[in-house]
Design goal:
Blueprint lengths: L1 H27 L5 H4 L3 H9 L14 H16 L9 E6 L2 E8 L2 H12 L6 E8 L4
Parallel strand pairs: 2-3
Antiparallel strand pairs: 1-2
Helix pairs in contact: 4-5
C-alpha cells in the first residue's frame, strides 16, 4: 500500500509541476508592453523628494553594497521565474541602472527578463543586453 501511495504522491507532484510550468510558459507568450518596460516614473519622484535641504548633494556616489544588493535582488527575481533559465543571465547594477547580459533562446524570454528586472524595487532602468541564442 505504501508503494502505491508514494507513487501516487510522486505522480500528483509531477502533474502539478507540469501544470505550473505550462501556465508559466503560456504567460510568457504575451510580450510586455512598452509602458511596462519603460523606466518607472516614481523613481524620479523618490530622488526629487530625497533632497530635503538646500545643498543636499544628489550626485553622491552610491554605495557599492547597495548596487550589489540590487543586482542580487534582480537575480533572485529572475531565478524565481519558472519560464527563464536565469543561470545564463548575468546581472550588474550601478546607480539603480541594471544591466542584463548573457543568453536566452527567445526574444519573449529576453523581454520577460527585462520586465522582471524593472519590477524590482530600486531599479530605475534596465539595459537589456541579453543575446538570443538557440538552445541556450
Amino acid at each position: 500500500m505504501r508503494v502505491h501511495s508514494a507513487q501516487f504522491i510522486r505522480g500528483a507532484l509531477c502533474a502539478a509541476l507540469a501544470c505550473t510550468l505550462g501556465l508559466g510558459l503560456a504567460a510568457c507568450e504575451r510580450a510586455p508592453s512598452s509602458r511596462e518596460l519603460a523606466p518607472r516614473a516614481d523613481a524620479a519622484e523618490r530622488v526629487a523628494s530625497s533632497a530635503s535641504a538646500p545643498g543636499t548633494n544628489l550626485a553622491a556616489a552610491p554605495s557599492p553594497v547597495a548596487d550589489k544588493t540590487l543586482a542580487v535582488n534582480v537575480k533572485a527575481a529572475l531565478m524565481a521565474s519558472a519560464a527563464l533559465n536565469a543561470t545564463t543571465i548575468e546581472v550588474s547594477a550601478r546607480d539603480g541602472v541594471v544591466t542584463l547580459s548573457g543568453t536566452t533562446n527567445t526574444s519573449t524570454r529576453r523581454d520577460l527578463a527585462g520586465y522582471l528586472a524593472l519590477r524590482v524595487d530600486g531599479v530605475v532602468s534596465v539595459r537589456n543586453r541579453i543575446a538570443i541564442v538557440a538552445n541556450s
